[in-house]
From TrEMBL:
<protein>
    <recommendedName>
        <fullName>non-specific serine/threonine protein kinase</fullName>
        <ecNumber>2.7.11.1</ecNumber>
    </recommendedName>
</protein>
<feature type="compositionally biased region" description="Gly residues">
    <location>
        <begin position="464"/>
        <end position="473"/>
    </location>
</feature>
<dbReference type="InterPro" id="IPR017441">
    <property type="entry name" value="Protein_kinase_ATP_BS"/>
</dbReference>
<feature type="region of interest" description="Disordered">
    <location>
        <begin position="289"/>
        <end position="368"/>
    </location>
</feature>
<dbReference type="GO" id="GO:0005524">
    <property type="term" value="F:ATP binding"/>
</dbReference>
<feature type="compositionally biased region" description="Low complexity">
    <location>
        <begin position="344"/>
        <end position="360"/>
    </location>
</feature>
<feature type="compositionally biased region" description="Gly residues">
    <location>
        <begin position="485"/>
        <end position="496"/>
    </location>
</feature>
<keyword id="KW-0723">Serine/threonine-protein kinase</keyword>
<feature type="region of interest" description="Disordered">
    <location>
        <begin position="399"/>
        <end position="513"/>
    </location>
</feature>
<keyword id="KW-0472">Membrane</keyword>
<keyword id="KW-0808">Transferase</keyword>
<dbReference type="InterPro" id="IPR000719">
    <property type="entry name" value="Prot_kinase_dom"/>
</dbReference>
<keyword id="KW-1133">Transmembrane helix</keyword>
<dbReference type="InterPro" id="IPR011009">
    <property type="entry name" value="Kinase-like_dom_sf"/>
</dbReference>
<dbReference type="GO" id="GO:0004674">
    <property type="term" value="F:protein serine/threonine kinase activity"/>
</dbReference>
<dbReference type="Pfam" id="PF00069">
    <property type="entry name" value="Pkinase"/>
</dbReference>
<keyword id="KW-0812">Transmembrane</keyword>
Amino acid sequence: MAANNDPGSPDVELDNVQATLGTSRYRVRSLLGRGGMSSVWLADDLAAGDRPVAVKILNRELGDDAEFRQRFRNEASAARSVDSPNVVAIHSHEEPGPGAAGPCYIVMEYIRGESLADVLRRRRTLPEHLALDVVEQTAHGLSAIHAADLIHRDIKPGNLLVTPEGTVKITDFGIAKAAEAVPLTRTGMVVGTAQYVSPEQAQGKQVTPSTDVYSLGCVAYEMVAGRRPFAGDTTVAVAVAHINEPPPALPQTVHPHIRELIGIMLRKDPARRYADGRELAKAVLQVRQGHRPPQPAGVQPQVHRQSDAAHPATSELGALTEPGLRRPTEMRTGQFAGAPGHTAARPAQRGPAAAAPAAAPRRKPARKKSNAGLWLTLILLLAVLAGAIWILLGAMSERGTGTPGSSSETTTTEQSWTEPTGTTDDEPTWTPSEEPETTTPEETLTPEEPTIPSLPGLPEIPDLGGGGDGGNPNSGPGNNSGNSGNQGNGGGGGDVNGAPFLPGLPPPPGLPG
């Protein structure tokens, strides 16, 4: 069977990598992955007891640039000092000697697992608590990198490895800064993946650790939304969107605290983001505990200040208040003097005095009118009204009820009527009898007795008895009951109807006695 001499075949490529590394230290086993700047191979470190390692071999065009090799050397040396469970450990780095041909490569810790990009390609989104866990672990790894005065510059799902135990590890740091030395026309790539590049990085400005915070914010956005915050037909269009456009709003199904956290991470101004991985890790911890994410330490709360020119709706709104509450027109210009966020409008000065305005005396703020006098007057009126009602009720009760009577003895006078015996000597007489009647003390009601007006004199009616000579004993009974009342001289007279007069009472006026 003929050997495969195709340079692009896996066997030929593996033999080329083995020749590059040599046979004394590493034994290449298989290809793990390939990226825009490098390819990663699985090998055994023979000097470390066949320890499995990952060998990242950079593209040859990068190694041909002298400035790139210098930056690569510096960054790789510094990266070896980073010690964090969330950062892939770097064992060694190699580069071709002066004048020698060959690629640069890095020997790293081999991680069993897969990249976050592979997980998202299969699941599209992650549950919120898992997305926060990825962000927090990555922030811890970035805090170790930033503490070593390093900036990753290329945080993306492909550079975040997830182990079967759930540990997130950052890889591929220290290479992006070295790649900045290679012109874009030669490499055909952008330093930092365009979908996750920060605005300052896309503009070629100086980057800070907050650049990695922005890129991680793009990763967090993709984990909860299932899409990247910015997209475009070209790499340049995506980079311009990062610079000028705000990120689209996350779905309302995402927890508000997570939306706020990602919003802070994706701020255009690096000074308004979290400064580094350490501050970001603290913020994520607050969110995982159910609190709102804190604002970055360098962000001062902004106070909205109203302009001097009031909106026309303001005057219209004031016109709806009670007329008594409105201030005079000349006082309105100074009504907000001294209030925070407001500036009292002053008329422009004219003439020489405008050049050096004298300090005008500060007008004392108008004291708020008190309603104490109004309440006091109302209370007094109520007291007077209550007193008048009380007096009126007392007067009515005195008229309708009597005073308690005292214990007294009343005399009841009874009169008896003696019928005549039929003889002339017998005369009807009244026999008064008095019996004392003792009553018990009690409250009695004394109704008012109406006044009966006196009757006018009545003329003597003919054919009726009465009014005869009381002194004639032989008169006899009259034609009616009225004549009988005139018998006897001392028996008293009678009225026109024959009723006898009570002794001691005068006859009605107009009648004979």
